[in-house]
């Protein structure tokens, strides 16, 4: 990304910049997920990483927007008898996608009851650090650039542990994880306000995430999950600040009405999504040169999973298209004039515009279906895999 | 409960009213529970309702405060070969406790994916209504007075269903459930802001719960769960309003920093608990004549379960003791004088008072241990049941 | 309003129902307002109710949507030497508008430091009740149907006053206010979560407002101010519930990111506004037969006031137009099929539609400017009144 | 402050460390303040900085805890004919107190309608920077160390201004302000979530404040106002992080139930205050060597002002006393054992302890009244100044 605001593409189609934009899908979104009360299962849900990648590839095939799939370790480990990650990477290539970020899983081992990288016991911290070494191996095997770390550590009760001691232990563990990276690899550090811990999280906000990144070095960048903030937080402000600090590494997109609801991105507050993407465009962060990775992180419980991912990808595309349509010279003129309502009107003009036909035209021109959701339904894919994927265990929240 | 404020017990010990106060424990609190990310298991966790009742009885034995255990159907169904509910009720009597409210479980059947009593399909609504008939049978078998209904129904996406149609169907289903009650039985209707649904809940607030109770009749009353409100909600105000309307049936006590965290009551905001209990005392609702049932509803994931329940019961007792110590004549005098800070000081004087020794004295006088937590640890109970309860399946969130 | 869902206008333009829709403007929105830190003044701000009515009439002249102006007593009292309310009503008629609701002001008298209708002292309560008698006189003089009551009463500190005693006094005062109404008049009772009181409000939520309305009688209905809820509250659910109870009397429209920010309606979350208006349309409450009054209640501090009201009126019209475009048969079909994403898509299709040209066409057909904001700017009205309204004291928050 | 946790004072009174602890009072707390709806006035309210200092000195005289008074420029400017700041500093000395931080006022000039240090126009930014030069002059005249900057800048509407451009201009202005400091002076930079701006604030959170401090240099530190966070924010975690980064410069203490309610510190959530002070003690930040300044920042509208400050000072003392009583070795042992409930119990034991008698004993030993509030009431001070301070204009929110 550059320090200069993006120059308007003179005489060109502002939507042309969509050509270079892509979204990364998480493998686990195609498995079963849900709430603490119930995880509902669905016919056709994948039973292994290969089937997850196939489902993800459908989304890319129909939209041209989602060429990468991120994995979650150990959920997506590939046993040697199935060919290991070489086989998975080859399968992805065949399906027309590639492997994206590698996520380390730090919340499902009994040892992690009181934490992982910030755990009071060195033995457990070492185990968590070693798990990242395994993840880096997967990165090398799959050609992945990004090691993504969401730290579920925290405490449930005041006094349960020393907040300061946990932070010092965390900083030490992160140094060790960082040292595992090859040149060119990045460590993406996510923050979250609460859940699964309910008194304190060890990385609850962007300030904490950034503090650790600054201490680690240039390869450490922040992940912003749109569902991980307190009510009323101005998320696009944080986007702007992290871009300004050159430390916004990635998004986990989803949406929420209450807490970390993990609904489809753009479903709860499409205007917020537009505002976020407007800040992205303001700093040219939608272009590949920014190295900002746009990922989905959603939990489909009652809705069909592939279709939920399709809709989400299209929501991001739509929001970005509108952001690209903002009349930047008019906006800047209103800013200079101190015209409060005029400036707001310029922004809202873009938001109010219905871009669906233009996006359908663009798809058609690229050999993609005008309506990817309808095309997916018509394809019979879901019926086919529902018939094929019988027996075995569906991938789920806990597997 | 009466319309008159409680008269100060002239010359007497204000804490004497604690003698009549009791708390109901939920059977499921002794099983494993947790978050959507992980349910940690613990040694000694009960495998059936009998063992749950035994654990609950420990809490009563050590505190004298918790003589009832509420059940959850179907989790606590007793098969005929184990003697059915007659056997469970007898077991409870032997352990010195009795069976309290019967909770209907409306969230773990695959049919309930889109709701239960408010489901679009009549077939599913009928099934949910029939489940309450089963619960009423359990009430008759166990001598329970209260049918407790927490409705997890709702929607995740705007437009997913008609909010109005859901409400009309719900009202109809509730009429049918209400018709199942014997005279003297009560229907307790709980409300919750969100989770497991993330756009709308069909009973999200006390206004909705009360609206349904008023439509149903005098046997329908509201359950207030202290974790089921939006941030910043003044819960004690709602307590006051429901008591004023003579429709506060029960509490589900727990505490929260963020959402429905289900931590131990009094752990997150002991001053809020005190304020709630002050409103209770103001309207004599701590006395049995009020028929308000004080229940715990907590989710112990990382903390030991029996000890967590012990601490919670003691927290409620401590808060109530402080509320009973409020100098009511001084408070009223300050109110009449419009003395803002003086009135606040009177309330805070009671809150600031350390009542632990007085409560220990009261326990000792009743043949109970001064320190129930220490007595429990010293008893070796947990070690004993951990050794005994080997094999079988531990009761858990989903079982 | 009716119990039946609105029948689709077969073959007709769904937007035709906009013809019967109107919005009421508050007189005070044209005066200076702001935050506790600063009220900024602007050239041309009205100095009396006549000038406020003239400004409000501009909005109606340009949009055809805002034929009524509500007054605030005592801010808008008209001295006899200026002809009293007869003169003001005549002035309004000349300007093409009429007088709407009469708002009682209960927060600016030194006597109201500890409350008004719920004040501990009978003398103060009597004063507040008498103020409503004065407001009813204004209603008779101006032909107003609605007495609008926002109660700022509450407490700042726990214990400051008895929550229950305040509620009992409030109920008594409301009975006396209600008794003042002529047949056909309505008492609109607003609720608010917090501010100006910071511990408890005496009418904090819709449950409390509805409880009082039910106790008073059919002429008492609830006012829903979109800025008066806790974060994350599902406001459209409350709209649905109040319509179902036949007790939704009016809206105070505005928008918010944090608290009661009082920004222009539709500015912070246009999708929420659409969802609210969808519930309105679902129960035919946009039609005059519903008797729901749609009012603005906003606080323009840094933005130009007439233009701010124009934009707000247009935002409501736009949201309602989109709600009228929802394909109700398709929506119902998706509901019956349990098609979560399909139903959401139907709703979102309407929301995504750009209705601005259709609304401009409608305006043109009715002899109104296609772009009311541009027409207002071009009219030179603001420059003219800025030159004319020199001397005197601008109407302000406190006057 | 040191990097090591505080060593327990072997064999000594843990409360002895209170001897070195002090709280700074804001001059404006003794004037009238309130909400946007009404500022109530009170008899005896000061009319100038001299009278404010006298009132503040009463609090120190009775508690021994509040030896400094912070000023607010231009509210507390002293005209030459009254002797300028030399006279005010001398008056403070006579009253037994000294001048603390100097606050710059950036919200009451008409030029600041769209911001001050981040304003789009260079002319306005220069004016705001020059205002800080004036403040630094006052610091030199009064011997003050701290320049305290709360930035009210922000926007009300999305698109109103460029978030990024505002941030860049702000960074530039802050550099110029920082350059004004003498060696040994500090720039305290406060953050606030919202109000007076309702879409974006230019310094909304600790991450932004810290980012600017790191860019400026070692003399720039963060101010944490306890009322300036989103609901559910874990404030003590931020305290810990800022101490760890050696950038916690000061507190603005107050308390809140909803937004920036500015109630007396400890009134809304005394347990939160205790947790904050526990983190302070954990890192020895209550000792003067930490250079953390503990200030009050409250808005007394309906409560008496001097008494409100007295109660607040005593609340902080009480919370700190309890934090000093935490059995640190037992706490650390529980941490090492992973004893969740045991560790929580250790913390709660200290919180539950009633320290009022011990604090009264300490006061008596130091020649102070056991009950400062009662002593203040008995002193007749308020009646005396109410009789004396007649005529002139009471200091108020806006003056």
Automatic annotation (TrEMBL), chains A, B, C, D:
One of its GO terms (biological process) is rhamnose catabolic process. Keywords: Carbohydrate metabolism, Isomerase, Manganese, Metal-binding. The keyword Manganese applies. The keyword Transferase does not apply. Residues 80-279 form the Xylose isomerase-like TIM barrel domain. GO terms for molecular function: L-rhamnose isomerase activity; metal ion binding. SUPFAM superfamilies: Xylose isomerase-like. It comes from the Bacteria. InterPro entries: L-rhamnose_isomerase (IPR050337), Rhamnose_iso-rel (IPR013457), Xyl_isomerase-like_sf (IPR036237), Xyl_isomerase-like_TIM-brl (IPR013022). PANTHER family: L-RHAMNOSE ISOMERASE (PTHR30268). This is L-rhamnose isomerase/sugar isomerase. The lineage of its organism: Bacteria, Bacillati, Actinomycetota, Actinomycetes, Micrococcales.
């Amino acid at each position: 990304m550059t320090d200069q605001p993006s120059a308007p593409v003179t005489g060109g189609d502002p939507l042309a910049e969509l050509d270079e934009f892509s979204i990364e899908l998480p493998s686990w979104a195609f498995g079963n997920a849900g709430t603490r009360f119930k995880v509902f299962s669905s016919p056709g849900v994948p039973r292994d990483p290969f089937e997850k990648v196939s489902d993800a590839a459908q989304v890319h095939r129909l939209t041209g927007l989602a060429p990468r799939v991120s994995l979650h370790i150990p959920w997506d480990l590939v046993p040697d008898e199935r060919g290991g990650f070489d086989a998975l990477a080859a399968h992805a290539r065949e399906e027309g996608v590639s492997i994206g970020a590698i996520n380390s899983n730090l919340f499902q081992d009994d040892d992690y009851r009181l934490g992982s990288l910030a755990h009071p016991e060195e033995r457990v911290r070492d185990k968590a650090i070693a798990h990242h070494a395994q993840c880096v191996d997967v990165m090398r095997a799959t050609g992945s650039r990004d090691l993504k770390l969401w730290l579920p550590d925290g405490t449930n009760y005041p006094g349960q542990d020393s907040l300061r001691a946990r932070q010092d232990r965390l900083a030490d563990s992160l140094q060790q994880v960082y040292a595992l990276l090859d040149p060119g690899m990045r460590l993406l550090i996510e923050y979250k306000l609460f859940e699964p811990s309910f008194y304190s999280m060890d990385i609850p906000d962007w300030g904490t995430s950034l503090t650790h990144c600054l201490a680690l070095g240039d390869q450490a960048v922040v992940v912003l999950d749109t569902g991980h903030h307190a009510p009323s937080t101005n998320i696009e402000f944080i986007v702007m600040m992290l871009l300004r600090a050159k430390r916004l590494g990635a998004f986990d997109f989803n949406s929420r009405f209450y807490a970390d609801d993990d609904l489809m991105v753009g479903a709860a507050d499409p205007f917020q999504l537009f505002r976020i993407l407007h800040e992205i465009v303001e700093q040219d962060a939608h272009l590949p040169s920014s190295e900002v990775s746009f990922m989905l992180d959603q939990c489909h419980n009652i809705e069909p999973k592939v279709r939920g991912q399709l809709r989400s990808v299209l929501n991001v595309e739509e929001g970005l298209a509108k952001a690209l349509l903002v009349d930047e010279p008019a906006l800047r003129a209103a800013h200079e004039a101190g015209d409060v309502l005029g400036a707001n009107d310029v922004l809202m003009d873009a938001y109010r515009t219905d871009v669906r036909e233009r996006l359908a035209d663009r798809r058609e021109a690229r050999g993609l279906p005008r309506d990817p959701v309808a095309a997916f339904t018509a394809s019979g894919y879901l019926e086919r895999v529902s018939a094929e994927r019988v027996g075995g265990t569906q991938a789920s929240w806990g597997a």
